[in-house]
Amino acid sequence: MSMNPVAVTIFIGLFVFVTLLGFVAGRWRRGDLDHLHEWGLGGRRFGTIVTWFLLGGDLYTAYTFVAVPALMFGAGATGFFAVPYTVLVYPILFAVFPKLWALAHRKGYVTAADVVRGSFGSPMLALAVALTGIVATMPYIALQLVGMEAVIAGLGIPMTTTVAGTAIPDAPLFIAFAVLAAYTYNSGLRAPAMIAVVKDALLYITVLAAVIVIPAELGGYAKIFASVDAKSLLLPPATATNFGGQSAYATLALGSALALLLYPHSVTGLLSASSAKAVRRNALILPAYSVALGLIALLGYMAVAAGVKSNPAFAQGFKDYGNTFAVPALFLHSFPPWFVGVAFAAIAIGALVPAAIMSIACANLFTRNVFKEFLKPGATHRQETQVAKLVSLVVKLGALFFIVGLPTQYAINLQLLGGIWIIQTLPAVFLGLYVGWLRAAPLLLGWASGIAAGTWMFVASGNKTSYALHLFGVTVPCYDALSSLVLNLGVAIVLSVMLNLVSRGPAAASRTAT
Amino acid sequence: MSEPEKPRRFRAVNLLLLLPFAAMLWVPSYNRVAPEIAGIPFFYWYQLLWVALGALVMLPVWWGSRE
Q1: Across the interface, do B21 and A283 touch by the CB < 8 Å criterion?
Q2: Which of A241, A356, A360, B13 is positioned for an S-S bond with A192, CB 3.0–4.6 A?
């Protein structure tokens, strides 16, 4: 692909602008950045609007915006599960998170594992929750780079740079991540919060232009849908003995919605809100991003209609990045160069926001629930924050080497597994808010059995997220995360009830004491 | 949970939050092409419509929770 100077200039200009913003952000609503709740939660001072931008940039990642249309492009209707998924997120957010926020605010909790530590008094259960969060998030950070890689390649910027006779592969990625690491280290959560405003503005402009300009170029929505293979336009119909793609679709939507809110970056974003009211209000206004996501999903079909795959100009891109290249190719095909620069910047900056928040969330978890709990119980606020800043660097470096050194498919599989793992923390994190009779040891056993069963189902079905359950003679393909969560809940509840019959536990005792 | 809280009253209006789940998880109810709007099959516009409906059903619950 040849490099277009206009597109590249606008792209780099926007990138430099948000970098400056990232460094300036440290002074915004100034706080003592030596405190972890200042560096890692922005001082819990974000009102409704900033939280809206932050969470929008955080939950709807660049990877989502590239992967969902890529799935529609390749597989059809199945890829649209992202819409019911994000419809279901908000009632859950609305019901659970104001309560979680209030508890965390009252007790000074920074992470979900802090909440679990407080609810059950078990450092081991909190450790399990913290490690699950870190392990599930790492490949997610790595995947943010995939979207960025595809647009950088789409701009025609060479991925391998030669300096003094030595070829350096993926140089643009290293530069982007070095910049990201520097301002995250410096400004903490304030940096992605401020950058998210720019990212979201670019994103909405791009989506608006795409759904108006591209269908007009392609001859209307009817023509776009007509170009999609009729078989993949709907889900395969269920039969009397096999629910087929429909149960997979429904369980994938529900399981993903539950898993999303348990990810450390979601919890960090929500706990940084200034009030429970700001959290509730956001449940009402965040769906605006779901509209954007739904429209972006349809870009996959527009790419089919535009025939980008058979266009020789994009052959190399599809060869290197597979269907991930569908949306970049569509933009290159449909937009003038200056707007390609804007749209691609939206995707690349859209990768930086969640990558920053995710690394901060992992750093908070490690610092609070591993370092301070097990390694240095007497750590000062300053030491705590210093460790968190360093861990945020390590996490990002790990993600970078992951994507540069290993095939992308590894990161994709690990991210899918991450969703199955993170949902296993639901009983400890969410149910602990509502009921007092669950016990730590049964929860830990439930967590372990859920992780084992979910991982086994994923591997046994050949790295697929759905495993066919056979219930009463009917084949029901079900999202691994959901079926393994049922097992997890069963183990945790049954053993807790049995344990409570035998003895009153320390958890119950401490509860009556406070 | 460990703090004394005012006893949680059950509010019927909270049941509205279950509506999106009923609608979205009952896939056979929307897995069809007709009726189309502006060339967009039912499967697609109906689910997009629920993004807005999902936000709307939270409104009465929100009003109910402010006291």
Answers
A1: no
A2: A356
Mean pLDDT of the A418-433 span: 93
Q: What ipTM was reported for this prediction?
A: 0.88
Average pLDDT rounded to a whole number, residues A389-393: 89
Distance from CA of B41 to the nearest CA of A (A): 8
Phi and psi (nearest 5°) for A10?
A: -65, -40
Q: CB burial class (10 A; 0-12, 13-18, 19+) of residue A103?
A: buried
Q: Is the pLDDT of residue A508 over 60?
A: no
Q: CA-nearest residue of chain A to B7?
A: A434
What count of other Cβ atoms lies within 10 Å of the Cβ of residue A249?
Answer: 26
**Using CB atoms and an 8 Å cut-off, which of residues 438-457 of chain A contact chain B?**
none
Q: What is the pLDDT averaged over residues A193-206?
A: 88
Check: CB of residue A252 under 8 Å from CB of residue A85.
yes
Choose among A492, A20, A498, A82: nearest CA to A289. A82
* Contact partners, residue A374, CB within 8 Å, separation at least 6: A123, A127
B38:A223 CB<8 A? no
CA gap B51, B55 in Å, rounded: 7
Alpha-helical runs (H) found in A272-407 = 276-285, 287-306, 315-321, 326-334, 337-366, 381-405
CB nearest to B47's CB, from A84, A284, A511 = A84
Alpha carbon of residue A347 to chain centroid: 14
CB contact under 8 A, A253 and B25: yes
Does any CB of chain A come closer than 8 Å to the CB of residue B65? Answer: yes
Provide, as residue numbers in chain B, all residues whose Cβ is less than 8 Å from the Cβ of A287. Answer: 51-52, 54-55
**Cα–Cα distance between B4 and A496 in angstroms, integer?**
23
**Is there a cis peptide before residue B35, judged by omega within 30 degrees of 0?**
yes
Is there a contact between A174 and A400 (Cβ–Cβ < 8 Å)? yes
d(CA B51, CA B56): 9
Q: Rounded CA gap, B67 and B64, in Å?
A: 7
Residues 6+ apart with CB under 8 A from A506: A121
Give me the pLDDT at residue A506, please: 55
- The Cα-based distances of A319 to A237, A309, A312, A326 in angstroms read 33, 10, 11, 11
Are the C-beta atoms of residues A199 and A148 closer than 8 Å to each other?
Answer: no
Asked if the Cβ–Cβ distance from B17 to A511 is below 8 Å, we say no
Q: Parse chain A into domains and list their residue ranges.
A: 5-236+252-422, 435-514
- Domain A5-236+252-422 is classified in which CATH homologous superfamily? Sodium/glucose cotransporter (1.20.1730.10)
